[in-house]
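Table S2 (continued). Query chain:
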Amino acid sequence: MDKIITVRPQGTHITKQQLPNFEGISANTAGAKHLCMHLVVIPPNGKAVAHYHDGYETVIYIIQGKAETKYGKKFRTFNH
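Corresponding output:
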């Protein structure tokens, strides 16, 4: 790659998971393949609607607070 792409969110939008999202790196904004990274604000006691990420991996980077991820057919829990 011979260029640098800068992504500056212009504001938030509500995702399918019903959480405020600041758009970041994705196929749409930076031409990324198999990577999607956005800033999502989860309010205290908030939660995302159950969903599946098809075709890319998931990373959670917590700036403040705690998160609990439930995954798999039996909803195994992973505390961050």
